[in-house]
Automatic annotation (TrEMBL):
Name of protein: Phosphoglycerate mutase
Residues at the catalytic site: H9 (tele-phosphohistidine intermediate), E79 (proton donor/acceptor)
Record GO terms (molecular function): phosphatase activity
SMART domains in the record: PGAM
Residue numbers binding substrate: R8, H9, G10, R11, S12, T13, A14, N15, R58, E79, C80, D81, Y82
Gene Ontology CC annotations of this record: cytoplasm
Pfam families, alphabetized: His_Phos_1
Lineage top rank: taxon: Bacteria
InterPro entries per UniProt: His_Pase_superF_clade-1 (IPR013078), His_PPase_superfam (IPR029033), PGM_Phosphatase (IPR050275)
Species of provenance: Tessaracoccus flavus
Residues that span the membrane, as ranges: none
Length: 216
C-alpha cells in the first residue's frame, strides 16, 4: 500500500448556485479555477507516482489546472449518483423528509433513480484499494474526487461508523492525505488549503454533495 492525497475539485458553477450537481457535466467557476491552479504550489515538493481522477468534468478540470492533465480516469472515484435529485436546488431538497436520514442515517438512504449511499461507500473504498494496490509502500498518488466520496474514504480510514461520515467536512480544493501502509490506515491531514477563515466560516448543518454553497 502507499500514501494517497485526496483532493476535492475546485468550486463549481453548481456549488456557487446552490445546486446539487451530482454526475452532471458542470465546470469550475472562476474562483474554482483559481483554487485548482493554487494546488500546483500546494503540491510542490511532493513526489507523485501517479494521478487519478473522477471522470466528471469538474474533477478532470481541477486535475489539469493542478498540473496533472494526463491524470488517469478512475470511474470508482466518481460522485455519488443522486438520481432524480441531480440538478435540483439544495434549499428545496432540504425540505424533503429523507434529508434528515442523509444526515443521521446515510447508510439507509437510496436516492430516487440513483445510487445508495452504501453503494457509494463500497465503490470508492474498492477504488482506493485497487489504486493503492498498484503502487509500492514508498510511493504517493493523488486522487481527484468529490465531497461525499472523499468523506467516505476518510471515515473508513478513521475507523468511523459510516453513518457518522457527515461529521467530516471537505471543502472545494481541500487536500486530505492517508498513509495506507500497514498495520492500519493513518490519516495525515484533512481539508488542508485556503485561508483559515474559510475553514472557520463553514456553515453548520452538513449537506449532501459536500457543501460550501456559494462560498469564496
Amino acid at each position: 500500500m502507499t500514501k494517497v492525497v485526496l483532493i476535492r475539485h475546485g468550486r463549481s458553477t453548481a456549488n456557487a448556485a446552490g445546486v446539487l450537481a451530482g454526475r452532471a457535466a458542470v465546470a469550475l467557476d472562476e474562483f474554482g479555477r483559481a483554487q485548482a491552479e493554487a494546488l500546483r504550489e500546494a503540491l510542490s515538493g511532493v513526489q507523485v507516482a501517479a494521478a487519478y481522477t473522477s471522470p466528471i468534468e469538474r474533477c478532470r478540470e481541477t486535475a489539469a489546472l493542478a498540473g496533472f492533465p494526463d491524470a488517469e480516469v478512475a470511474d470508482g472515484l466518481s460522485e455519488c449518483d443522486y438520481g432524480d435529485w441531480t440538478g435540483l436546488k439544495l434549499d428545496e431538497l432540504m425540505k424533503e423528509q429523507v434529508w434528515t436520514d442523509i444526515q443521521a442515517r446515510p447508510t439507509e438512504v437510496s436516492f430516487p433513480g440513483g445510487e445508495t449511499m452504501t453503494g457509494m461507500f463500497d465503490r470508492v473504498s474498492a477504488a482506493i484499494d485497487e489504486l493503492t494496490g498498484r503502487h509500492a509502500d514508498d510511493e504517493t498518488i493523488v486522487a481527484f474526487s468529490h465531497g461525499d466520496p472523499i468523506k467516505g474514504i476518510l471515515a473508513h480510514a478513521f475507523g468511523m461508523r459510516r453513518d457518522d461520515f457527515q461529521r467530516i467536512h471537505v471543502a472545494p480544493a481541500g487536500i486530505s492525505a492517508i498513509d495506507y501502509r500497514q498495520p492500519h490506515p493513518m490519516v495525515l491531514c484533512v481539508n488542508v488549503g485556503g485561508a483559515l477563515a474559510a475553514h472557520l466560516g463553514v456553515a453548520r448543518g452538513p449537506v449532501v454533495g459536500g457543501g460550501d454553497v456559494g462560498r469564496q
